[in-house]
Amino acid sequence: MAIRVLLVDDQPLLRTGFRMILEAEQDIAVVGEAGDGLQALDQVRALQPDVVLMDIRMPRMDGVEATRQITGPGRDGPAKVLVLTTFDLDEYVVEALRAGASGFLLKDAPANELVQAIRVVAAGEAMLAPSITRRLLDKYATHLPSGDEPVPDVLHTLTDREVEVLKLVARGLSNAEIAADLFVSETTVKTHVGHVLTKLGLRDRVQAAVYAYESGLVRPGAQ
């Protein structure tokens, strides 16, 4: 079945451009559009999309609050949210990730990256492109722990290998890349990621990456 996508952006021309790109793909169907967060909530309830391509800055209700309501407790459907951001990165992107977004994409990303991001998010994975992640973390480096603070007690529930995996997730590596780095199978990596999410009470890889930096486990610029 085709991936059902809802386009949410207050600029009609951008929505038209995204629609043209996505409707050229046999496995993707654009089921609707919305010009602000409130319209997005109505459309999600009515259309039950698989993926919502969500702008951040919009009138009436911004993308952060819309994301929170779409993915939060009592949500009406299984929709995943892929956040759109400008090249210089909106200051609200971190809040959108905390609110439940499954990843973020630059508005000027090539068409093939947009298509691939939607497929990744629809499959239940997180869209954490390393280049975007690094720029995001550089922007917020002054607000993140320095690494000198003690790590939260809950991190001590992780095994050494799970900590390694969490650090690599925070760097934006995919399961395949982590498997190659640690010389293990992708299935083993998926198992470790699952354990990390369960032990830390996190929803997905995006939250895991943000948590790793906010807890001080990983520092911006560290390898």
TrEMBL record:
Cross-referenced SUPFAM superfamilies: C-terminal effector domain of the bipartite response regulators, CheY-like
Residue ranges annotated for the HTH luxR-type domain, each copy included: 151-216
One Pfam match: Response_reg
Keyword Phosphoprotein among UniProt keywords: yes
UniProt entry keywords in alphabetical sequence: DNA-binding, Phosphoprotein, Transcription, Transcription regulation
GO BP annotation list: phosphorelay signal transduction system; regulation of DNA-templated transcription
GO molecular function list: DNA binding
Domain Response regulatory: 4-122
InterPro entries tied to this protein: CheY-like_superfamily (IPR011006), NreC/VraR/RcsB-like_REC (IPR058245), Sig_transdc_resp-reg_C-effctor (IPR016032), Sig_transdc_resp-reg_receiver (IPR001789), Tscrpt_reg_LuxR_C (IPR000792), WalR-like (IPR039420)
Modified residues (4-aspartylphosphate): D55
Range of residues in the leader sequence: none
Xref: CDD domains: LuxR_C_like, REC_NarL-like
Protein name in the entry: DNA-binding NarL/FixJ family response regulator
